[in-house]
Amino acid sequence: MRTWIILLLWACAHQSVNAVTLSRGPVRRKTKETEGRQDKDLLRRSKRGWMWRQFFLQEEYTGTEHQYIGKLHSDMDRGDGTVMYVLAGEGAGTIFVIDSNSGDLHATRSLDREEKPFYTLRAQVVNKKNGLPLEPETEFTVKLHDINDNEPKFDKEVYTASVPERSHIGTYVTQVTAHDADDEMFGYSAKLAYSISQGHPYFSVEPNTGIIRTALGPSDMDREQREHYQVVIEAKDMAGQRGGLTGTTTVNISLTDVNDNPPRFTQSIYQFSVPEITKVGSLVGRIRAVDADVGRNAEMDYTVVNGDGLDVFDISTDRNTQEGILSLKKPLDYEKKKSYMLQIQVQNTHPDTQFLSMDAKDIANIRVSVEDVDEPPQFEKINYILEVKEDAAVGTVIGSVSAVDPDILRSPVKYSIDRHTDVDRIFGVYAGNGSIFLQRPLDREEFAWHNISVIATEFISSCDSSNVMPVYIRVLDVNDNPPMLASFYETFVCENAKAGQKIQTISAVDPDDPVGGHRFLFSLAPESSVRANFSVRDNGDNTAGIFTRRTGFGRMHKSTHLVAVVISDGHIPMQSSTGTLTIRVCTCDRDGNMEMCNAEALSSTTGLSTGALVAILLCILILLLIVVLFAALKRQKKKEPLIISKEDVRDNVVSYNDEGGGEEDTQAFDIGALRHPEVMEESKLRRDILPPESLYPPPPLRRTMVPSRGNADVRDFINQRVQENDGNPTAPPYDSLATYAYEGNGSVAESLSSLGSVSSEGEQDYNYLSEWGPRFRKLADMYGGEDSDWDS
């Protein structure tokens, strides 16, 4: 009702100011007539009409006619119809129209203040006849009066917020904000008030600010009871009065967790069983405690606080599942202890004293039973170290190992050696008592240590269980090797050497390893023949010096001296050997530097000279050149032609470097070498057998002269030979004349060869030539001796 009263008062005020006067009196305007009199008349100030600068129009007009805004009037309008009102500016002619005669201003359609709150227009009075302005343009605005036609809208359709559980009343949660598009300066159309329509009694909202706060105490805001809330907030304009427009939004509020719950075991007693052979560090079992909190507040720690297995078992926390992992800390022995009792405590890792005390923890008991297992025998020691002298006899017992069955039955144990560790079978073990003995002789100089593995197994066992123990055998040294010269010594002595001159220092080596170290003694061999020339002096440090005993040595008299030196050790039993030192007599300079020795010494010391090496290399190069030239000449040697004489077309003489089976043996040579390479690649046939007929097409038919019946045998013979020659795969690839020594059977003329003919001096009868026809007429005249009586 209050809204309608305000609108009525506004309408009355609007009607009282609809008529606006644009001018109070005539306005002087510059024309051509007045311009001519400017120098006569004084300048006058024009008299302008007055007007209000604003018109008001209600938005969202729903009438069918044009909405009346107001009336424009000028003092120049005397009501005689000579003036005309002209409107210009925003929306002139489309949104706003003016009556040119009366000056009434109208709006042609409904307007929305939220789209455009005001319009700026210009009005002017002109002469209707000539269109000349009677006064300057006047600018004014049309402002739209707001009505409550827009509901409030929130910034978000859905808000998300959170607040810790156990919060006190009035704890800030979040703030929502809504906006109204109506005019805030006009009435209460944009005055908003917030209220909560869903979410009671847990939350409240401040009407003016939209701040949401908790409405219940800590005991009622428990995340473990309810975690998510959906609150609906309403914003209403007109300051929340009846008739105002409303807008709503949803706020999803979650309670965040605080550490207000201690962990609790799911059961008070846990039972596990574990075999006694379980390895240290292995898993025994898992226990679980639950915490109603989540995340960091649900992390917990397990500890063993009491029991008889504090030093045997250990417990840790699985950070992924928050379970307690019970593991083995020490080996178990069923024969010693069959079960253990443990007391386990659990508490939060990060307790919050605001909600929980430091004593918030839980206790559970664990009973662990040890299962009996048929264990393998156990050795009394971790390892064994035995010693034996290298000269010990085969079969000597060098030591023993001992193992017992840890089970209650105490089964007897048998022993054996892992032959992978004793491939040569040097050692053996007695299966009953574990004594280790020698099976082969030892040599410390070859192997000073032997590492073998002894296996202990129960004689009677339900499973093939065993244990392996390493045994280290040290071979003790015995003085069984004589000392020897450290190397092959060869030195020289100058011809002008003086008595007592040192010419060489020698040392010795011994593969034995005595406890106190080596002590070598050096002396000349009793049978040595150089005692008058050389002597040996022991230096006392396992070395000795060779000295001359006389002055002057003759190289031509004796060029080489062999000095036999006896080396012995000082241990029991004493070992000795004799080494030979070679001393050559050489010519030296004054400083004792060698200049020349005999041929043997020279060759042994200096080797081949540079000239000799160069000569040897030159000989090798010459030999290589000769070989290369010989090979090149042999490649350039031309082969002899197959046909020696081109004039003889009957006989084809082919030369070969081997002897064949005669002229008719065509298989003794490779006739294919004369053929074209492409033809040879297409068909390669063996030469030692007759090729199949299918590989060769039959020879083409030839038209030959048919001889007389009397020569049928010659015809058959020739045809047979021609066919054989055509089909012969070994025939030469060129045309050749094939001759045959057959002239037919029973020929009257016999052979035409002069070699086999009878002497021409004898008389012969050639009358038969006249019977052969006209072709033999000439022969008949020549040999017949009588005149021919043939018809011409």
From TrEMBL:
Signal sequence bounds: 1-19
Residues that span the membrane, as ranges: 612-633
Domain annotation Cadherin: ranges: 74-154, 155-265, 266-379, 380-485, 485-602
Membrane topology: Single-pass type I membrane protein
Keyword Lipoprotein: no
Known role: Cadherins are calcium-dependent cell adhesion proteins. They preferentially interact with themselves in a homophilic manner in connecting cells; cadherins may thus contribute to the sorting of heterogeneous cell types.
GO cellular component: adherens junction; catenin complex
UniProt entry keywords in alphabetical sequence: Calcium, Cell adhesion, Cell membrane, Cleavage on pair of basic residues, Glycoprotein, Membrane, Metal-binding, Repeat, Signal, Transmembrane, Transmembrane helix
UniProt GO MF annotations: beta-catenin binding; cadherin binding; calcium ion binding
Pfam families tied to this protein: CADH_Y-type_LIR, Cadherin
Subcellular localization: Cell membrane
Name of the molecule in the record: Cadherin-10
Organism of provenance: Cyprinus carpio
SUPFAM superfamilies, per the entry: Cadherin-like (SSF49313)
Listed GO biological process terms: adherens junction organization; calcium-dependent cell-cell adhesion via plasma membrane cell adhesion molecules; cell migration; cell morphogenesis; cell-cell adhesion mediated by cadherin; cell-cell junction assembly; homophilic cell adhesion via plasma membrane adhesion molecules; morphogenesis of an epithelium
Matches recorded under InterPro entries: Cadherin, Cadherin-like_dom, Cadherin-like_sf, Cadherin_CS, Cadherin_Y-type_LIR, Catenin-bd_sf
Lineage of source species: Eukaryota, Metazoa, Chordata, Craniata, Vertebrata
